[in-house]
Amino acid sequence: MSTVAVTTRRSVLADVVVPQSLLADALLVVGAAAFVGLMAQISFYIHPFVVPFTGQTLAVLLVGSTLGLRRALSAMALYVALGLAGLPWFAGHASGYSSLLFGYLLGFVLSVTLMSWLAAKGNDRNVVSALGLFIIGELAIYAIGVPWLAIDLHMSLAKAVTIGMTPYLIFDLAKAIVAGVALPSAWRFVARATGK
Questions:
Q1: 0.85 cut: is pTM over it?
Q2: Exposed, middle or buried: residue 67 (CB in 10 Å: 0-12, 13-18, 19+)?
Q3: How far is it, in rounded angstroms, from Cα 38 to Cα 75?
Q4: Alpha-carbon distance 105 to 165, whole Å?
């Protein structure tokens, strides 16, 4: 295996597409946080569920799978910190601390951590493995968000799964499919453009 193949295999998309510099990293982090904030505005509630349906998780998945661990974690930290400080870019133009939904924000951090690690191992290169990658990313969000919801609402974990996860699964599967097709397609485009 050539050195180029090894380097590419252990890279995430941003490593291949964006020149390495502190400025580029900063722009990627700020842009990724803004992208999550923008996608969070695709938001609606369906009665009786207390967690909004949003486009935000699609953005989290894409950030986690394309930027690499350091930049993805920085982007999520920036997104959460500025939202808590009052920037209205949480779902539905919300800001500040919401004890009900804070577990999902923490889940974003776990999700990008897992996604970055798995993407760096090459799990973002074909549709089947990318789909698995995105499903793992979605489940990571629920792994923290749902138990947090149960504690916050003083209900059983089973009830929290019913109101904080089950209704969202079909939408999350659709997001995973979109991202699972888009990311390998982006890799193929980069390979054609660079001749590698």
A1: yes
A2: buried
A3: 13
A4: 14
Residue 50 belongs to what domain range? Answer: 3-194
Beta pairing partners, 44: 53
Domain count, the chain: 1
Report the alpha-carbon distance of residue 25 to residue 117 in Å, rounded. Answer: 18
User: How far, in Å, CA of 33 to CA of 177, rounded?
Assistant: 22
Q: Which residue has the tokens 């699964």?
A: 169
Domain of 80, CATH number, reads: 1.10.1760.20
Torsion over CA of 76, 78, 81 and 85, rounded to 10 degrees?
-140
Rounded CA-CA distance 54/51 in Å is 9
Closest CA to 12 of 125, 176, 107: 125
Distances (CA, A) of 11 to 108, 127, 179: 21, 17, 18
Residue-wise pLDDT for 64-114, tens only, equals: 999 999 999 999 999 999 999 999 999 989 999 999 999 999 999 999 999
For the record, the structure tokens of 52 come out as 């909004």
Query: Contact at 8 Å (CB) between 163 and 176?
Result: no
State how far the Cα of 152 lies from the Cα of 50, in Å rounded to an integer: 12
DSSP string over 10-44: T--HHHHHS---HHHHHHHHHHHHHHHHHHTTSEE
Which helix or strand (DSSP H or E) is residue 53 part of? strand 53-54
